[in-house]
Design a protein that fits this description.
With 74 residues, the chain is mostly helical. The protein is 86% helix and 0% strand. The protein is built from 3 helices and no strands. α1 runs antiparallel to α2. 19% of the residues are buried.
Length: 74
């Protein structure tokens, strides 16, 4: 359920940004994308898929860092 809500938020924000041709919302949908990847990674760890789980968590931390940097650049 959380995964679907986060995916919907990412799709709506990025779709609006694409149609409006603006990058103002980029830090926000990157943050929600990082949260979505983190939730996917935690679900993979619960399924005992350790490699995919840790890889997704590492990627989500990178996306969180990039979103914070993008937010500070604005």
């Amino acid at each position: 359920m959380v995964r679907m809500i986060l995916a919907l938020v990412v799709i709506v924000l990025s779709g609006y940004s694409l149609t409006a041709q603006t990058l103002e919302l980029m830090p926000y949908y990157m943050f929600f994308l990082g949260a979505l990847i983190l939730v996917i990674g935690l679900a993979e760890l619960q399924k005992d898929r350790k490699v995919w789980g840790y890889m997704n968590i590492f990627i989500s931390l990178f996306v969180f860092f990039a979103s914070i940097q993008a937010f500070l650049m604005n």
